[in-house]
Amino acid sequence: MAIYLTKESKVLVQGMTGAEGMKHTRRMLAAGTNVVGGVNPRKAGRTVEFDDRAGGIDVFGTVREGIEATGADVTVVFVPPAFCKAAVTEAADAGIGLAVVITEGIPVHDTVAFQSYAQQRGTRVIGPNCPGLITPGQANAGIIPADITKPGRIGLVSKSGTLTYQLMYELRDIGFSTCVGIGGDPVIGTTHIDCLQAFEDDPETELVVLIGEIGGDAEERAAAYIREHISKPVVGYVAGFTAPEGKTMGHAGAIVSGSTGTARAKQQALEAAGVRVGATPTETARLVLEHLASS
Amino acid sequence: MDLFEYQARELFEEYGVSVPTAEVAGTAKEARRIADRLGGRAVVKAQVKTGGRGKAGGVKLAADPAAAELTARQILGMDIKGHTAHQVMLAQPVEIETEFYVSYVLDRAAGHFLAIASAEGGMEIEEVAANRPEAVARIPVDPAHGVTADKAAEIARAAHLPPEAADVLVKLWTVLTEEDAVLVEVNPLVRTRDGRLLALDGKVALDDNARFRQTRWGGAETAHDDPLEARAAAKGLNYVKLDGQVGVVGNGAGLVMSTLDVVAGCGARPANFLDIGGGASARVMADGLSVILSDPDVRSVFVNVFGGITACDAVADGIVQALDEIRLTKPLVVRLDGNSAAQGRAILNGHRHPLVEQVTTMDGAARRAAQLAK
């Protein structure tokens, strides 16, 4: 088991024929992902060759055609920022179950529009501006390096890509059920809370690692949710204690304004909900090992 | 990007929201001429991108052009919460009867915009919101429909604003969507003695991600106060100057923020934030190091890279390239892990620079860099 993505998932790649799309489709295939098609209206009807897929991968003109031909249930979106709103809207209209939006730099009005649209049509969005998700040993939808770790019993949800990789690496000998990079933009589809509940329901996940960073109040909300609804142990890490107020540090969402949204406030909220929070990624990994050893 | 008040005022005017007559001046002499044109009396307002101007003495009423010149001279160059006033706006005074508050702001958790409005506008709106939340209406806006005349009427009613405020609410929503703003705030929106509804002061924050389709502001605000930030921005680097001694460079905003924290946890202070991003090339690494090393406050540098997409051999090549281009006078602590880490470490070992040291763990490398900065 795993959450959101398994070896049964049939994956389309919107923007597969672009440079990033090609590079990461190659990596997704190498990780065992069942990529069933690409989508590009200008290159419909072509077949793209890949080393790890005999016969190549077909390019469809629309997501709907891709679903009809292959039964795809997941799409990974690599299209440029200006076209993401149309891409996700189209995927939701076609009835895709999960849209993983890797693209960085999407105007927030567009995200607000496609996220709300997708939600009404029952499409789960992960991202945007995220590394995607991986279920080690089964499938990889996005850009998370697949060779860091192996299948295991830890679930991971994170705003940050490289911190995800760092924790996967620190805990590579234990392994992960699924790792989800939810993205650091101000508005995202799938939240920490969604992932926490999914991991709670996943019999193969024993413990959840939650990584947050300054900005917004998603971690505080997650803390409140954990207190009420999560019985599995959660270990946390929060980045951004040293970030100065009011300065953006890379992620649009990582802005501290006023007293809420600080790393300290998030740490306190998580600890008050019984979550042990590591001071560094390495210490966080140690806390996970302690938990697993004592259970 | 935040706009200055005078820019927000221009936008409002363009979209049909009534605003006071006003002009901007960069010198006291100019301020005098503007006051003269405005009829003598003028409110002189510091143009800084921060709140609390009034309390800091950055907003003053001048009775005549001579007084306007004097006041402008006092305000120009004034520091308000770390922001220098390089310009003043002179506005025709209005007779205020009532002050209201209206804004559209992104509700991150809900994933849509929120209309916030109150019949009790003015400087103390945050206190009103905290002490008497019932006096502040918060109405979610469905992105599929936006703020229609009906929706605007609903917001105005909920906040006990006069019915004619609905028209202003529709126009401000157009500003928000057409301009790709993430915040539009009017505080106060006033009713004057002669019955007009005017946006007396406003704040607009634009979405940097929308610059590709919002060309009006161009590179309007790429003026960085800090020379190192300006240099980094010119090279397309994501760099923020901080006030410590340990230079920090890494890949990915989350990992770099975490690196700052770990350095601080070792008793040192980070000198900067620098994210070379995913899949960074040797050139980006070399550019980044050259900016950090030219910071006179920096005593040691911590390069912390976890190779996901980024390959550590490219990072190592970038470090070597930087060492060829600049004479290294400060110690460099490098931690490479992940994608092609072995190759990256081998490249640096082969280079054998006496000031470059490799430490295999993030915490250990942070400790070493902190120690070297003492």
Biggest sheet statistics of chain B? 6 strands, antiparallel
Oligomer: heterodimer
Number of strands of chain B: 18
Evaluate the radius of gyration of chain A: 19 Å
**Helix-and-strand structural type of chain B:** alpha+beta
- The amount of beta strand of chain A, in percent, is 15-25%
The total count of helices of chain A amounts to 9
- The ordered H/E elements of chain A are EHEEEHEHEHEEEEHEHEHEHEH
The H/E string of chain B reads HEHEEHEEEEEHEHHEEEHEEHEHEHEHEH
Distance between the termini of chain B: 37 Å
Subunit structure (chain A): Heterotetramer of two alpha and two beta subunits.
Organism (chain A): Streptomyces solicavernae
Pathway (chain A): Carbohydrate metabolism; tricarboxylic acid cycle; succinate from succinyl-CoA (ligase route): step 1/1
Enzyme class (chain A): ligase
Provide the descriptors you would attach to this structure in a database record.
heterodimer; A: 295 residues; alpha/beta; Rossmann fold; 9 helices; globular; B: Dna Ligase, domain 1; D-amino Acid Aminotransferase, Chain A, domain 1; 4-stranded antiparallel beta sheet; 12 helices; 18 strands; CoA_lig_alpha (chain A); ligase (chain A); succinate-CoA ligase (ADP-forming) activity (chain A)
